[in-house]
Amino acid sequence: MPPNTLSPGPEQQCPIVRSVARVGDWWSILILRDACYGLSRFDEFQKSLGIAPTMLTRRLAALVKDGLLQRWRYSERPPRNEYVLTESGRDFQPVIWSLLAWGNKHFAPEGESVVVIDAETGERADPVLVDRATGRPLARPAFRTAAGPAANPRIRTRYAQKGANP
Amino acid sequence: MPPNTLSPGPEQQCPIVRSVARVGDWWSILILRDACYGLSRFDEFQKSLGIAPTMLTRRLAALVKDGLLQRWRYSERPPRNEYVLTESGRDFQPVIWSLLAWGNKHFAPEGESVVVIDAETGERADPVLVDRATGRPLARPAFRTAAGPAANPRIRTRYAQKGANP
DNA sequence: CAGTATCCTGTCCGATACTG
DNA sequence: CAGTATCGGACAGGATACTG
Q1: Does any domain span residue B104?
Q2: Whole-structure pTM over 0.90, yes or no?
Q3: Scanning A21, A80, A82, B114, which has its CA 20 to 30 A from the CA of A53?
Q4: How far apart are CA B17 and CA B21, in angstroms?
Q5: Total domain count for chain B?
Q6: Nearest-by-Cβ selection for A98 from B95, B126, B145
Q7: For A132-160, how does the pLDDT look when each residue is reduced to its tens digit (9 = 90+)?
Q8: Is A63 a member of any domain?
Q9: What is the residue range of A7's domain?
């Protein structure tokens, strides 16, 4: 992570930067992937990821600190914790599935090894990002990114030049 | 990036791992964000990101090598390149917007500074991931991740234990 | 302007060893 | 089993200087 990208203060930042600041590394995304799947115990993550225990401790602590996972002590003696998704952690699932769809489309020449299915029927789902109100697929050039109501001058300038709207 | 996670060979991997292998770092995601917005020249990226030129060279080269950006020489003397999105690069836009929506929802207490809008009307869009065929929002527990047709034994085992479907 | 070359520092990350 | 402590190497990433 570039050290000075977040300074001076997160309130000046683009929401993508804020997101990436929390999950902008390999391990965090993969841990969240596994947590979304249902893993919660230290050794489950370790086995699934092949991660060094020391690194797993660090990344879990970071995810807990950022509020994506919650540490839950389910046994006092011996001390046992599990790491469960918070609301913001669960809301990361669409990002995971977007990454999944993107990987399946472009980096899986031999076919799809992991898919999203309807949990009832088992039928394949095809993830697509749409506008909630109209159901129209979000894609350029019909849609674009723009400064929002809470944009600071820096953000406003960044998104001002190209085809600004009233 | 964990060095041994990709070995031995990408054909054994989960599609999320393949995706993250290409964009699993800060700078790549931010460069793609800017490229999706329309930036294409070296100094545009540099100014926008505040990235060191040497690092920008490295990341651009990696993105070109992975086929997300294409280097396009638009002037011979002086030599000038621009970096434009390939099809797979353009298809990364939904991931960006998913990250945007997630950041706006959870890490923007003061309001949304960047939003997706209809390029024609300027109206705000609310990104949500749905199933293309039915339009149903993709969320657990109605939907879940499962092994796909091209799954190898390792993947199949991983997704076998919890509530497998026929 | 659009980069490349070189150097240096921080830290990511794994290996190993240890504890309740 | 569920971690913590410590060490060391590799590399991410910034600073500076240089080139066409």
Answers
A1: no
A2: yes
A3: A21
A4: 6
A5: 1
A6: B95
A7: 999 999 999 999 999 999 998 888 888 88
A8: yes
A9: 1-91
